[in-house]
Specification:
The complex is a heterotrimer. Chain A is α+β, with helices and mostly antiparallel strands. Chain A has 2 domains: about 80 residues, Beta-grasp domain (Ubiquitin-like (UB roll)), CATH 3.10.20.30; about 80 residues, [2Fe-2S]-binding domain (DNA polymerase, domain 1), CATH 1.10.150.120. Chain A contains 5 helices and 5 strands; from the N terminus they run ββαβββαααα. In chain A, helix 2 packs across helix 5. By secondary structure, chain B is α+β, with helices and mostly antiparallel strands. Among the domains of chain B are: about 200 residues, Aldehyde Oxidoreductase, domain 4 (2-Layer Sandwich); about 90 residues, Aldehyde oxidase/xanthine dehydrogenase, molybdopterin binding domain (Aldehyde Oxidoreductase, domain 4, 2-Layer Sandwich). Helix content of chain B is about 25%, strand content about 25%. Chain C is an alpha+beta fold. The longest helix of chain C has 16 residues. In chain C, helix 5 packs antiparallel against helix 8, helix 9 packs antiparallel against helix 10 and helix 10 packs antiparallel against helix 11. In chain C, a hairpin with a 5-residue loop joins strand 10 and strand 11. The termini of chain C are far apart. In chain C, the strands form 3 sheets. In chain C, strands 4-5-8-6-7 form a 5-stranded antiparallel sheet, with helices on one face. A 4-stranded antiparallel sheet of chain C has the order 9-10-11-12, sandwiched between helices. The chains are: A alpha+beta, B alpha+beta, C alpha+beta. Chains in contact: A-B, A-C, B-C. At the A-B interface, helix 1, helix 2, helix 3, helix 4 and helix 5 of A face helix 1, helix 3 and helix 14 of B. The structure holds flavin-adenine dinucleotide, iron/sulfur cluster and FE2/S2 (inorganic) cluster (2 copies). The site of iron/sulfur cluster has 15 residues of chain C, from loops.
């Protein structure tokens, strides 16, 4: 099937097998290997991209179902040569080791910062909580990091959130 | 100085093994054994070959040519026997990943099934004493009179702890891209912890001279031991590429990682301790039962830390192994020390309680002058300093040992302590340093699996050369570079760094180029006990209504020689301790008695800590000036962080609740029943 | 994954018209694509219903109407839901991850399938996946499976958090299909396994969930609480949705209790509720009510911990809700 996507700002029209995930489309066919595959089942967050500005697991998104969507991957986070503040903060705070979860963490954090509303750890569902470390930890729990860079990830995100 | 490859990693430009753009690449997907033990009677590939895009099916119907002495786990499709569920029995190659995977489902395999046994038991009739335990230690040791030591004791502890099978689960699943050239040379882009070792193993398996094989690995998404040796997936790509005459990519699924990439053996550990009225140890015994496959003997060195930790007149350690119908266990972060110290340090906590001593004090009291088992002097040992500094920072003093009495709302609060240790190994390595374009290029076939090797080696070279780090460029991750040992055993930096320093020194003398090989220097080094030590403190809260456990604070103090880079070291320690939280509270690969293998084999069922689990982890270190190690004065830091964490948490759970859970992981289910 | 065709439906009628044997509706795909990749689901045709104009949350009488294509995250973040049905907001936010909630739809969440390890592994038998092949979970790994209402054919649990809150809220599920429209009261959407474990719900083939209607929120205080093995991003060991309304004289006027991860369907605790109505709102009654419910519990050898967990959760949640 033919689909058209905007990927990191450029229009891409591609012919895809309906079985192909958005993640495999990016990695195997569009040469955008920044998004990672850690589990292929929505369980690790390494494949997180922004679909129409919202964070999503590209491994569970069928490419055909994204026809007409706007996709941002880690390759598209920076503003030209100027790194996204999250990218700079991740480097500064050593918020990664092997780096394999990092693109997903970054896209997830970018999506998360735009979200607002309560989370599972918010006391009062009706209130809009401040983005405390506890809130960041809960909201970033869809992104596993086996290297255990969590404390630095939280510090980096908190710095950008301020 | 931030990580050299940091920019590449945050922009998605760092290339991992499955990501090299190779023209005409094809995809291979394995077929896995659907039985636990038996023989393949037939493999029918016709249906698979008729699927769209299918190019080839390889299996034992027509065994690919391999060296006769290939490692049985890597000797794919040579035999009809099945040794464990999930073993690779065939592979399908196709033009796309989707087609390969769909076609693999159409391969029909029939078996003759035999009864199987996948369960480790302490009284298993098949338990035997292995010749040695990983990598080269004696299986058993005995010093002094254990019975007399126990009889003379004022207090004794006789406890059995168990740890489950657990999986390394690096975030990057093992992936391989294999490319054969027209004249029979092989290039393998492999997610590995050692390019030189991988090259040697691939060449040996194929029966090729090593020069015909090149292994490239610029970035690895973690390994934690599971990429220390090559795995069947690598050979799958290599053989499939040879068969179809095109490049082949194999990216294992997370589920397949549970089947074929190694795991930490489950253990059953009996610890007997005796102490006199003052708390001085009179006897230490550590006996371990663990498993390996029927294919390969891998015996984890679980009881070895007892040979190093505490002064005692009587010391016995023993390992027993049983060969089950399981995949071969392998290295996982701090093999031996990690599970062994869990049992020993939990038992020490029980002894402290039995003796009415503070657990920090008990450990300080029993700190040895020389290595207890061998009698060798330590190159340096600062366990006591770690314990005391940790106690100070953690606010340990005045701790009431009474369990189950501190409450904060619905939570019971407790604290615990445990020691850490890990050997300071070093292996021969080569390296070169060359003046190029006004700076230096340092070449060594090291691998950076997230430890920060590029950055650390740059700093080491810059220091040796007396230049700023930006005048040094490190080339690593390619077996064409000067051979180097793998990133494992916390010995990467020490081994590579020694060669890098020597090469840099020679380059300074030469003015242009220096090359070094540390083989002789390492052979000549003095016979000392070289170990890093540490102390870990945990504060937990437990909800006894729900069994929920949260780790409010972890503090680790380590003595690991000279720390080469503070930020990198911090990340390594904290990362290890985070994995220790997983080990303590949630990680377990559930053995499936009926079907073999593990019934939970993904990240939804096998839990590793998420961001919300890690509330506060602090790590710090005591500077050591140890001149018996290597030119950097550094001990490894990659593994010690996970050693002791689970015991500290388990001890804190006991302090909080009065319940001693002796089987990991400490889940709500274990607290509630 | 087997090959399949894909089509995007324009409206509910179009979706139903396109449905044919071998077809499946596709919501956010977070469960269906997962199961397709495992080979558990093998549709020949996917009718994408994720972009149907069913993505609104609107007041409806004294309640709320939630479209089936509303994303889980939008449900949890909607001001009216947070204010009037905080139990539901919390249940939704306790499920999965931020990314998955952005993709998952209300319809898909209700119809997600069990996380039983054997169900998800096509190399092993499972009555739910392959009727008649057997249920290895009974003798095997059932540590997170059912204690209520299971059968000798299947001991699976329904994994949804949201559905537990909907069961406690007396929500009604609106469906349309080849046979017309109908409304199914929760928890009646999901079945117990009986001897047909392959059927999770009472829906007929081709029936499409169009909306969930929430009646006026129950009076009194309410709460959703989920116990899991790690602090976040894990399915429940047991979860509870509870509401408690206490009269001036200190007796229970009304209450709602539903449990998650204990049965093939969200488990509405009717016995406990009956035992509580009119009883004094205190620990003794709460413990008695929990006991009444647990009389019908049939724990398996490796999930017996769910019994004390259920008892404690009922008691402590009601204690929290009592004035
Ligand atoms: C890693 C992971 C963790 C998770 N953790 C949790 C958790 O903790 N708690 C929890 O509750 N859930 C959890 N989930 C499950 C998640 O909530 C569901 O996958 C999701 O809600 C399904 O919604 P969907 O729109 O993606 O459904 P889909 O995957 O698109 O569909 C699911 C099923 O519903 C059918 N369907 C979809 N829409 C309709 C409709 N309108 N009418 C009729 N049939 C329809 C489909 O045919 C399919 O059978 C988790 C999922 C993952 C992957
Ligand atoms: S419990 Fe149900 S889903 Fe699980 S194996 Fe048994 S039949 Fe299948
Ligand atoms: S690869 Fe998509 S969540 Fe793991
Ligand atoms: S940096 Fe390695 S998994 Fe996060």
């Amino acid at each position: 099937m033919e689909i058209t996507l905007r990927v990191n700002g450029s229009r891409r029209t591609v012919e895809v097998d309906p079985r192909v995930s958005l993640l495999d489309l990016l990695r195997e066919r569009l040469g955008l290997t920044g998004s990672k595959k850690g589990c292929d089942h929505g369980q690790c967050g390494a494949c997180t991209v922004l679909i129409d500005g919202r964070r999503a697991n590209a491994c569970l998104a069928l490419a055909v179902a994204q026809d007409g969507s706007d996709i941002t991957t880690v390759e598209g986070l920076a503003d030209g040569d100027r790194p996204h503040p999250l990218q700079a903060a991740f480097i500064e705070h050593d918020a990664f080791q092997c780096g394999y979860c990092t693109p997903g963490q970054l896209c997830s954090a970018a999506g998360m910062l735009a979200e607002g509303g309560p989370s599972a750890v918010t006391e009062d569902m009706a209130a809009d909580p401040a983005l405390t470390a506890e809130e960041i930890r809960e909201r970033m729990s869809g992104n596993l990091c086996r290297c255990g860079a969590y404390p630095n990830i939280v510090t980096a995100i908190a710095e950008v959130a301020r | 100085m931030t990580r050299i490859e940091g920019h590449d990693k945050v922009t998605g430009r760092a290339t991992y093994s499955a990501e090299y753009p190779i023209e005409g690449v094809t995809y291979a997907y394995p077929v896995q054994a659907g039985i636990v033990r038996g023989r393949i009677t037939s493999i029918d590939a016709a249906g698979a070959l008729a699927m769209p895009g299918a190019l080839a099916v390889l299996s034992s119907e027509d065994p690919p040519e391999l060296a006769p002495d290939a490692d049985p786990e890597l000797a794919l499709f040579q035999r009809r026997e099945v040794a464990y569920r999930g073993q690779f029995v065939a592979v399908v190659v196709a033009d796309t990943y989707e087609n390969a995977r769909a076609a693999a489902r159409e391969v029909r395999v029939t078996y003759e099934e035999d009864p199987h046994d996948v369960r480790l038991r302490g009284d298993h009739p098949g338990l035997y004493r292995p010749e040695k335990v990983n990598p080269f230690y004696p299986a058993d040791t005995e010093k002094g009179d254990l019975a007399a030591g126990l009889a003379a004791a004022a207090v004794t502890v006789d406890v059995t702890y168990t740890t489950p099978a657990v999986h390394n689960n690096p975030m990057e699943p093992h992936a391989t891209l294999a490319v054969w050239s027209g004249d029979g040379d092989l290039t393998v882009y492999d997610s590995t912890q050692g390019v030189s070792a991988a090259r040697a193993m691939i060449a040996k398996t194929l029966g090729l001279p090593a020069e015909r094989v090149r292994v490239v690995c610029r970035h690895v998404g973690g390994g934690f031991g599971s990429k220390g040796t090559i795995r069947p997936g690598t050979m799958l790509a290599v053989l499939a590429a040879r068969a179809v005459g095109r490049p082949v990519k194999v990216a294992l699924t997370r589920q397949q990682l549970f089947d074929v990439t190694g795991y930490r053996t489950p253990t059953i550990q009996r610890v007997r301790l005796g102490a006199d009225a003052d708390g001085r140890l009179t006897a230490v015994e550590h006996e371990v039962a663990e498993q390996s496959s029927t294919l390969v003997e891998f015996a984890e060195q679980t009881a070895t830390p007892a040979r190093t930790m505490y002064e005692t007149p009587a010391l016995r350690t023993a390992h027993r192994l049983v060969r089950l119908d399981v995949a071969t266990p392998s290295w996982m972060r701090a093999p031996g020390e990690c599970p062994g110290m869990y049992a020993l340090e939990s038992a020490m906590d029980e002894l402290a309680i039995a003796a009415g001593l503070d657990p920090v004090e008990l450990r300080v009291l029993n700190d040895p002058e020389t290595e207890p088992e061998s009698g060798r002097p330590f190159s340096s040992r600062n366990l006591v300093a770690c314990l005391l500094e940790g106690a100070r920072r953690f606010g340990w003093e005045g701790r009431d040992p009474t369990p189950g009495v501190r409450r904060q709302g619905r939570w019971l609060i407790g604290t615990g302590v445990a020691s850490s240790t890990y050997p300071a190994y070093r292996r021969p390595s080569q390296a070169t340093a060359t003046v190029e374009n006004g700076g230096y290029v340092v070449r060594v076939a090291a691998v950076d699996l997230g430890t920060g090797a590029r950055t650390a080696l740059t700093k080491i070279a810059a220091t040796a050369l007396g230049v700023p780090p930006d005048q040094v460029r490190i080339e690593l991750g390619d077996s064409d570079l000067p051979p180097a040992p793998l990133a494992g055993g916390s010995m990467g930096t020490a081994s590579w760094g020694s060669a890098v320093v020597a090469a840099c020194e020679e380059a300074l003398r030469d003015g242009k180029h220096g090359a070094a090989d540390t083989t002789d220097a390492i052979k000549a080094q003095q016979d000392l006990a070289r170990h890093a030590f540490g102390a870990q403190f945990a504060r937990v809260r437990v909800d006894m209504d729900t069994g929920e456990i949260r780790v409010s604070h972890l503090l680790g103090i380590f003595a690991a020689g000279r720390i080469i880079d503070e930020q990198l070291a911090m990340s390594q320690f904290v990362g290890g301790m985070t994995m220790g939280v997983g080990m303590a509270l949630m990680e377990e690969s559930v053995i499936d008695d009926e079907f073999g293998g593990f019934s939970n084999h993904d990240f939804a069922q096998y839990h590793v800590p998420v961001c919300a689990d890690i509330e506060r982890i602090d790590a710090a270190w005591i500077e050591e000036d140890d001149r018996h190690l290597n030119p950097m004065g550094a001990k490894g830091i990659g593994e010690i962080g996970i050693v002791g964490t689970a015991a500290a948490i388990g001890n804190a759970v006991y302090h909080a609740t009065g319940i001693r859970v002796r089987d990991l992981p400490i889940t709500p289910a274990r607290l509630l029943t | 994954m087997r090959s399949f065709e894909y089509a995007r439906a324009g409206d509910p009628a179009d979706a139903v018209a396109r449905f044919r044997p071998g077809a499946m509706y596709l919501g956010g795909g977070t469960n269906l694509v997962d199961l397709m990749r495992l080979g558990v689901a093998e549709p020949e045709f996917l009718v994408d219903v994720s972009r149907l104009p069913l993505d609104r949350i609107e007041p409806d009488g004294d309640g709320l109407r939630v479209g089936a294509a509303v994303r889980n995250s939008d449900l949890g973040a909607h001001p009216l839901v947070r204010e009037r049905y905080p139990m539901l907001a919390r249940a939704v936010l306790a499920g999965a991850s931020g990314q998955i909630r952005n993709m998952a739809t209300v319809g898909g969440n209700l119809l997600q399938r069990t996380r039983c390890p054997y169900f998800q592994d096509v190399s092993k038998p499972c009555n739910k996946r392959q009727p008649g092949s057997g249920c290895p979970a009974i003798a095997g790994d059932h540590s997170n499976l059912a204690i209520f209402g299971h059968s000798s054919a299947c001991v699976a649990t329904h994994p949804s958090d949201m559905a537990v809150a909907l069961a406690a809220l007396d929500a009604r599920v609106h469906v349309t299909g080849p046979g017309g429209d109908r409304v199914i009261p929760m928890p009646g959407l999901h079945r117990l396994p009986g001897d047909e474990p392959e059927r999770d719900t009472v829906l007929a083939p081709g029936e499409l969930v169009t909306a969930v209607h929430l009646p006026a929120p129950p009076p009194g205080a309410s709460r959703y609480r989920k116990v899991r093995e790690r602090a976040s991003f894990a399915f429940a060991l047991v979860s509870i949705a509870a509401a408690l309304d206490v009269a001036e004289d200190g007796t229970v006027r009304d209450c709602r209790i539903a449990l998650g991860a204990v049965a093939h369907a969200p488990w509405r605790c009717e016995r406990a509720e009956r035992a509580l109505r009119g009883a004094p709102a205190g620990e003794e009654s709460f413990t008695r009510a929990a006991g009444a419910e647990l009389e019908q519990a049939r724990p398996l050898p490796r999930n017996a911990h769910k019994v004390p967990l259920v008892r404690n959760l009922i008691v402590l949640t009601l204690l929290e809700l009592a004035p």
